[in-house]
Amino acid sequence: MDRVKDLASKSAAVIFTKSTCCLCHSIKALFYDLGASPAVYEVDHDADMERALRRLGCNPAFPAVFVGGKYVGSAKDVISLHVDGTLKQKLIEAKAIWF
Question: What is the pTM of this model?
Fold first, then answer.
């Protein structure tokens, strides 16, 4: 769990993904479209990382999105934030994008 927190705090935006997850790809594309360059960690073969994400409350575990070191949520949560306009503001506040 400390490893997840450490990785999540090293960049303004962090996405934990699996290469076979289509929602993970969509969330990464959304961040890139908004001008962010998130740190992306593919954890296909890291069961310990998946367990740690679940213990932190990430359910479903992928994609697990962190902005400013804080857990934002999974795909559904990120899309909701984008639709209501708060995702971009969170990214600006975390200095993941500049405007």
Answer: 0.93
